[in-house]
Amino acid sequence: MKEWLEFESYLAKVERYVIPRWVNTRKEDKIELHVFAEASQAAYAAAVYLKSVDNNGHVCVNLVSAKTIVFSISKGVAIPRQELCAVLLATKLIYEISHIMKIPKENLYAWSDSTVVLSWINGEPSRWTTFVSNRVSEILTMIDKDKWGHVITNDNPADGASRSMSVNRILGNNLW
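== RNase H type-1 domain-containing protein ==
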């Protein structure tokens, strides 16, 4: 019963949390999409942000979309492969959003905290196992190698979505 009451109090807090859904941009603004990928033992996630810069240099960043996939406990997939799945999810998400919003490929940027996955992306897919090679090849059809960058885990907004976090910690997270 105690757990239920605690959960119920968390729901009341979550209801007050607002994520703006309207993105204020104009045709003359410089628009970029940034996607962040993250994986943990339990899940992998991606978060897409739209960054706009107006003629006065005013920068506005909005969360556009996020997605989390929970791993099956029986899978037993190694962390680098989970990170690769997160990067593929992130790539598909930003690619779809860029087409809907008509944002050119050169304005897409992707971020991961996995140096292993970034080395796979920057390497030659034929050198890797079939699992890695197939996913890296698919990623590279949507986002070029030079658009991938490293983000430290503490600065990765997708990190919280792949892990168990309390409502108070989520609401206090300034990355969102």
